[in-house]
Amino acid sequence: TESISLVQQQFDVIYDLAQTVRSQELVVKNAMDEQNEGNKQVLEAMKSINDSTTSVRDSSTEMLEGADQVVKEMEVLAEVTRRITDSMQAMSHSIEGITKSVREVQNSSDQNQSDTENLAQKIDTFKL
How far apart are CA 48 and CA 44, in angstroms? Predict the structure, then answer.
């Protein structure tokens, strides 16, 4: 019976050690599960950061293309403005020429009227 008691004690020790190992396995497994979950969260965060970076890059490219288009349109606007300015200057010169011609015609008309009046007076002197 002493040997049975000794065997029983050894089985109890083995059982307690197996329970300790099982408990430690459970702790390690839980830690690994938590680590795995944390890794998943890190992976999701990295994917989110990558998506944000891609979105920012795409938006930056789009903004750059938009800025290029604005520059082109500003160049077109500058050219149209230059043409309008040139046309306005040409119109101003034309108006100055017309004004000068009108003054010359007016002066010629005034001179003709004066000459006509002088001629009429001289003709009247012949009638007497």
Answer: 6
What's the number of CA atoms in the CB half-sphere (13 Å) around residue 61? 5
Q: Dig out the tokens for 10 from the structure.
A: 């050894």
- The string of DSSP codes covering 53-122 is HHHHHHHHHHHHHHHHHHHHHHHHHHHHHHHHHHHHHHHHHHHHHHHHHHHHHHHHHHHHHHHHHHHHHH
**How many domains in the chain?**
1
Q: Mind listing the pLDDT tens digit for each residue in 65-79?
A: 999 999 999 999 999
Q: Collapsing DSSP states into helix, strand and coil, what is residue 64?
A: helix
Domain extent, residue 30, equals 1-128
26-53 tens-digit pLDDT? 999 999 999 999 999 999 999 999 999 9
Q: Which two tokens stand for residue 107?
A: 């002066």
What are the distances in angstroms from CA 126 to CA 103, 112, 113, 116, 119? 34, 21, 20, 15, 11
- How many residues are listed for the chain in this entry? 128
**Backbone CA torsion sign across 48, 53, 57, 62:** positive
